[in-house]
Amino acid sequence: MKKASKTAKCTLCSKKSVYSNQGTHYCRNHFISYFEMKVYKTIEKYKLIEKGDRVCVAASGGKDSTAALYLVDKYCRKNRIECFALSIDEGIDGYRDVSIDGLRAFCQEHGIKLFEFSFKKLYGQTMDQLRETMLKEHNKRPCSVCGILRRRVLNVESRNLKSTKLVTGHNLDDEAQTFIMNVYQGSMAHNAKMGPISGIKQDTKFVPRIKPLYLVSEAETTLYTKLKGFKLSYHPCPHSDLSFRRFIRGQLSELVKILPNAKYGIVNSFLEILPDLKRKYRCSVELRECETCGEPTTQRKCNACLLEEKIHSKLANDF
Ligand code: SF4
Ligand SMILES: [Zn+2]
Ligand SMILES: [Zn+2]
User: Fold this and answer.
1) How many domains does the chain have?
2) Which residue's CA is the closest to the ligand 1 atom numbered 6?
3) Which site among 19, 44, 277, 310 is 20 to 30 Å from 38 CA-CA?
4) Residue identifier of the C-alpha nearest atom 3 of ligand 1
5) How far, in Å, is the centroid of ligand 1 from the Cα of 99?
6) Spatial separation of the C-alpha atoms in residues 170 and 67, rounded to whole Å
7) Is the Cα dihedral 273, 2, 233, 61 positive or negative?
8) In whole numbers, what is the pLDDT of the chain averaged over residues?
9) With bands split at pLDDT 50, 70 and 90, how would you rate the model's confidence at 319?
């Protein structure tokens, strides 16, 4: 999959090609249709959204979640399904504040209701404040802290908003990376929770997380948002430099230079074994309520509460 050469013509209408995939060239309009069809087919094939759903889109103002928000909102309007957006400001100066400003403008322009939350209000600290403490005192990388805290806000607040589905902007690249990360770490049980609909066991307290961009690549999503003229910031988060994901992402980028369809190969192979993985690990997962916050977890206390204890012990020591 690559950008089209300067001279290539669209296979479907002979206009100037902007993108090529497996021998087919696409002009701007045909690429947009190809991308949107791929997303809608994913929604329908995996029954991600159905009549009667109340759909909450986790939006950050980044390219992936904005593409997901735009297309899910369009799909829901067409099918008379309720849809709104939820944002979390993790407190990353010069990055999240900028993207959330863009998200507010986007939601206003498209008539989408937006519910806003922030780490500062919910946890008393911003990610910028947490980065050094968690790294130095607890050897925790920023993305793992951010991911745990964000997942809890997403589940709790989307449930409070009576959502039946929570949309995330994860794309094919994210899924291929996560699968490989879990393989390297020997965590096949974590892979069992992945797929177009996340989760391994149903629990009334878990809002099912769905991924309409599951089968589109990051490059395709970037191109789509640019061709649609969405005003977005494409800068990476300043804390991502320390992430394991960034390392795996680099490895996969090298791999696709010699094996262009490697990410599709990884995700398609994963989808083949996913039903077996879910069967295997479903029985070994025992969900219970966290003794501190009551959220579903496999441990006595959920990861977010364990992290919060660390955050508050630091605050108490400082005081
Ligand atoms: S890159 Fe890491 S720290 Fe930055 S928003 Fe994503 S998960 Fe959070
Ligand atoms: Zn065309
Ligand atoms: Zn808890």
Assistant:
1) 2
2) 143
3) 277
4) 143
5) 13
6) 11
7) negative
8) 92
9) very low
